[in-house]
Amino acid sequence: MWFFIVQGLIYGFAAAAQPGPLQTYIISQAIARGWKRALPTALAPLISDGPIILLCMFILSQIPIWFERFLHLAGGLFILFLAYGAYKSWKGYDPSTPLPESGTSQSIFKAALTNLLAPGAYLFWSFVTGPVLLESWRQSPIYGFGFLVTFYGVMILSLCAIILVFGMARRLGPKFNHTLLGISAIALLGFGIYQLWLGITG
Fold it and tell me: What is the DSSP letter of 40?
């Protein structure tokens, strides 16, 4: 069982540290809204990954090319929508304006939807963690459960650390925060265009 727990530790950290649309979105939220209000977005994978895991375990190992292209296109369009929201936050940035009190559940939903529509999560569960989960579950359901708990425990803690680091950056001054917010918008735009390009070119 320890072998699967170690794999959960490694893959959980890798999934959180790997640059992607979800990470970029939660960073932009930490910068724009503060770490306290952005922290719940770290739980987004718990909402989105259930369907992803099931789909990858039973279908995505044999998906046709056109379906993968559809995922790229849908994910690209949604990421562009997030980039536009980050751009509006950058354009209308006012350090004297208090942070909004509501919208936490909406941020979690957007983060979960970002992860659900991004092909990276499907590919990760199809070719990396999916086989490990199958092997551990076949040996014993307890092993599979241990792998999942370890994987998501490390992943969520790592995402929380990312949010804390970038959320604390708000204290470095409005110009620094404004710049970081603009960078996050550009990064989301880049991810969106890249996903669309993959969907169009196949």
Answer: G
Q: Is 189:25 a contact under the CB 8 Å cutoff?
A: no
Q: How far is CA 97 from CA 29, 53, 93, 110, in A?
A: 16, 41, 8, 23
- Residue 38 neighbours by CB under 8 Å, 6+ apart: 26, 29, 30, 107, 163, 167
Half-sphere exposure of 60 (CA within 13 A, CB side): 24
Q: CA-CA distance, 8 to 14, in Å (whole number)?
A: 10
Chain-centroid distance of CA 117 in Å reads 10
Among candidate residues 4, 3, 13, 29, the one with its CA nearest the CA of residue 163: 29
Give residue limits of the domains in the chain: 2-201
* HSE, side-chain direction, 13 A CA sphere, residue 135: 12
For the segment 184-193, what is each residue's pLDDT rounded down to a tens digit? Answer: 788 778 877 8
| Residues 82-97 pLDDT 10s | 788 878 877 876 655 5
The angle subtended at Cα 111 by Cα 194 and Cα 131, nearest 5°, is 75
